[in-house]
Amino acid sequence: MFDVLGVPPQVLFGQLLLGLINGSFYALLSLGLAVIFGMLNVINFAHGALYMIGAFVAWLLLNKLGLGYWWALGLSPLVVAVVGVLLEKTMLSRLYKLDHLYGLLLTFGLALIFEGAFRHFYGVSGQPYPIPDLLKGGQNLGFMFLPNYRGWVVVASLIVCFGTWFAIERTRLGAYLRAATENPVLVQAFGINVPVMITATYGFGVALAGLAGVLAAPIYQVSPLMGTNLIIVVFAVVVIGGMGSILGAIVTGLGLGLLEGLTKVFYPEASNIVVFVVMAIVLLIKPAGLFGRER
Amino acid sequence: MAAKSQVNLSQGNPSQATIAVRQPGQDNTTRLILVGLGLAAAVAAPFVLYPVFVMKVLCFALFACAFNLLIGFAGLLSFGHAAFFGGAAYITAHAAKVWGLSPEISILLGTVFAGLLGLAFGALAIRRQGIYFAMITLALSQMVFFMALQLKFTGGEDGIQGVPRGHLFGVFDLNDPLAMYYFVLAVFLVGFALIWRTVHSPFGQVLKAIRENEPRAISLGYRTERYKLLAFVLSASLAGLAGGTKSLVFQLASLTDVTWQMSGEVVLMTLLGGMGTLFGPVVGAGIVVTLESYLAGTNLPVPVVIGAIFVVCVLVFRRGIVGELQALMARHRKS
């Protein structure tokens, strides 16, 4: 077989696939953050914790109720959405008239509570979650071995991402949403119930995080700490991409995941910080972000 | 539009405006008496309380005051101050242990390092405003965390242990708990005096103008970016001073000091005590450190309690303890 710059292709493509999977999660999470920020002007620090809860609900469904992966794929995001709606109704909705930073501080506190509570009951070690029978095994592509489940994660998150893009940019409901992001008072004057729309947006945004959690469960282990370290990288992704555009969030997420994978091959020591370095460079060259509008 | 994204934490906190204004004579005397009592308590504290505990409170109080200089007086929420605190702790510990330098030089090196790091991070972060500023500082500090985890000299998971306290100016033996205590108290007072001076200087007034209305400050001819950057560097250096001192108190620099949880903790101390008040962060640091050492002896999970206080503060107690007291006093004075 041929080597790429002295790296065997199995290693290169293996890491690229891992990068693509990480990128899918970055994309799903930064998409949720962007949708929520557009409507609520809140940066949802609890996004990582809700992703973790999504994975944990899947794990609990399997171990307590015997409901498998496919059930979890539907139920988990639903549970997370309900949690999100409750949070929005009882707490976040009180902060809209204040400075945006209070939303960040509130959700930071919530993230600490969720993470601390799960850590208290389940410890820090990861819980294994089995790959569903239907997706076991893999394909030999000639230049690399592709486990079926990993392929499924990439395809599923791409479908969800582009589905969300289509719903927001190309449907009537999405048009209302975009209008309410621009000018909520005017949209309300046209007889659309904006408060309900805000609640639903938050519920949908965090449901995306819950879904990402279920998809992640069989790849990474289910652990209370899985969300928060991820969310800081996703923040950097959001700064790089800018939160102005849905497609921007998706493309930036996938691209940075791939870049991280490449770094793991050629300079593994820097793989943890490459996203932050890119963020610094983007801030120097194009402060508004690659797809952002300066507001 | 820029004005909208700018931080305006003074909303609903009319008492803040009174900080800068000179109080009538009577208030000044009360204030002097209070400060005198506080100083007397600080001098007497090591005879009543466990000295290391009080030193911890003083270090975190200085850290929180440094953080408050940004959020309270310039309206910039940094979510990455642990990088300066913990980074300086590593440098100080390394200088004292490996290079065998004296404590004052080691702490100075740590402080300078934090200031330079603050210059680099600040220059990047002030390119965006509001919520983005918070996210950028958080991401940059996470980079420092990963570096501390991977670099050789930081000792990875173990940190730098057994840091010698040494002899201050070659004379005072800091292994004596009382000598160490009064050294830490002096460091705190110098840092606090610097912050007090900054807030009450023309520079501090410009910072407040930027916090209230940046476009207007720009139109008045102020180059607001330079002011913000200088405030950031000052705040980072003082956070470094606190971190370096802490590494000598505990004779340890560890990963805990550079985590995002540490950045969150200093936000909480400031929020709980009162953002934009001078003494609020000191009160907040005292409460949080006391609470944590109490919780360590119980079965309650610390992060859950900390998170719950965060939520309560944001929802119903945004002025913080000292802020509420000042508002109460202002109302009392009016009636």
TrEMBL record, chain A:
<protein>
    <submittedName>
        <fullName>Branched-chain amino acid transport system permease protein</fullName>
    </submittedName>
</protein>
<dbReference type="Pfam" id="PF02653">
    <property type="entry name" value="BPD_transp_2"/>
</dbReference>
<keyword id="KW-0812">Transmembrane</keyword>
<keyword id="KW-1003">Cell membrane</keyword>
<dbReference type="InterPro" id="IPR052157">
    <property type="entry name" value="BCAA_transport_permease"/>
</dbReference>
<keyword id="KW-1133">Transmembrane helix</keyword>
<feature type="transmembrane region" description="Helical">
    <location>
        <begin position="265"/>
        <end position="285"/>
    </location>
</feature>
<feature type="transmembrane region" description="Helical">
    <location>
        <begin position="100"/>
        <end position="122"/>
    </location>
</feature>
<feature type="transmembrane region" description="Helical">
    <location>
        <begin position="149"/>
        <end position="168"/>
    </location>
</feature>
<feature type="transmembrane region" description="Helical">
    <location>
        <begin position="68"/>
        <end position="88"/>
    </location>
</feature>
<keyword id="KW-0472">Membrane</keyword>
<feature type="transmembrane region" description="Helical">
    <location>
        <begin position="12"/>
        <end position="35"/>
    </location>
</feature>
<keyword id="KW-0029">Amino-acid transport</keyword>
<feature type="transmembrane region" description="Helical">
    <location>
        <begin position="232"/>
        <end position="259"/>
    </location>
</feature>
<feature type="transmembrane region" description="Helical">
    <location>
        <begin position="200"/>
        <end position="220"/>
    </location>
</feature>
<keyword id="KW-0813">Transport</keyword>
<dbReference type="InterPro" id="IPR001851">
    <property type="entry name" value="ABC_transp_permease"/>
</dbReference>
<feature type="transmembrane region" description="Helical">
    <location>
        <begin position="42"/>
        <end position="62"/>
    </location>
</feature>
<comment type="similarity">
    <text>Belongs to the binding-protein-dependent transport system permease family. LivHM subfamily.</text>
</comment>
TrEMBL record, chain B:
<feature type="transmembrane region" description="Helical">
    <location>
        <begin position="229"/>
        <end position="254"/>
    </location>
</feature>
<feature type="transmembrane region" description="Helical">
    <location>
        <begin position="266"/>
        <end position="288"/>
    </location>
</feature>
<keyword id="KW-0812">Transmembrane</keyword>
<dbReference type="InterPro" id="IPR001851">
    <property type="entry name" value="ABC_transp_permease"/>
</dbReference>
<feature type="transmembrane region" description="Helical">
    <location>
        <begin position="32"/>
        <end position="53"/>
    </location>
</feature>
<dbReference type="Pfam" id="PF02653">
    <property type="entry name" value="BPD_transp_2"/>
</dbReference>
<feature type="transmembrane region" description="Helical">
    <location>
        <begin position="179"/>
        <end position="199"/>
    </location>
</feature>
<feature type="transmembrane region" description="Helical">
    <location>
        <begin position="60"/>
        <end position="93"/>
    </location>
</feature>
<feature type="transmembrane region" description="Helical">
    <location>
        <begin position="105"/>
        <end position="124"/>
    </location>
</feature>
<dbReference type="InterPro" id="IPR043428">
    <property type="entry name" value="LivM-like"/>
</dbReference>
<keyword id="KW-1003">Cell membrane</keyword>
<feature type="transmembrane region" description="Helical">
    <location>
        <begin position="131"/>
        <end position="149"/>
    </location>
</feature>
<keyword id="KW-1133">Transmembrane helix</keyword>
<feature type="transmembrane region" description="Helical">
    <location>
        <begin position="300"/>
        <end position="321"/>
    </location>
</feature>
<keyword id="KW-0472">Membrane</keyword>
<protein>
    <submittedName>
        <fullName>Branched-chain amino acid transport system permease protein</fullName>
    </submittedName>
</protein>
